[in-house]
Amino acid sequence: MQADTFQPPRVNWTFVAVMGVLCACVFGFNYSRYGFHADSYLWTIRTVVKLAFAFFALSYISSPLHDWRPTRFSTLLMKHRATTGAAFAVVQLSAAACALVIWNNWPQIIHAISTPVERVLGVMVFTWIFIMLITSNQFAIDKLGRRLWSGIHTYGMMVIWIAFLLDYLRRTVEWSLAYGVFTGTLLLILFLRARVLLVRRRAASPAPAGL
Known about the structure:
Helix content: over 70%
Low-confidence stretches: none
Radius of gyration: 20 Å
Number of helices: 9
Number of strands: 0
CATH class: Mainly Alpha
CATH topology: Four Helix Bundle (Hemerythrin (Met), subunit A)
Shape: globular
Order of helices and strands: HHHHHHHHH
Oligomer: single chain
Structural class: mainly alpha
């Protein structure tokens, strides 16, 4: 059986590690202000999730943006989309670690801001993010095969997109219209990806027979 030689864009793990250190620094700063208190973890989450969203948006918009209008910027995003995706995972999982500490020590806060269904879905999403992170390498592709690996990452990004949309849409309606910036970004990604899919389907359709 011929080996699967599919190779995705390479991850710059040095950059990803730097982002992990940056998250640790954010936590260290907050811990120096509040000590072992829920605020140390809450303020860390509020900071790093915005950084995580930026990396997710850059990674997920790269392909449809490049297909729609290739530019130097879109080419740069395409080249580094695996790195921005991995950076998103590390930063988002840093927020998840803080949320777990809050859940273990101050569960009333978690219960006040989320429903049981949201907590279960959150755990599922974070688990999927972790799986995507640890399979972002050629070894995982060789072991899983291209089809399974692509399915994990393709559907994983869709699941994360849905989770972000539901979260920021709720925040926009219930908390502040400022969160509409995040919601609008997600809808822009949806528009671009839908447009690319439509164009590809039209291109694949057989031409109508001549009269």
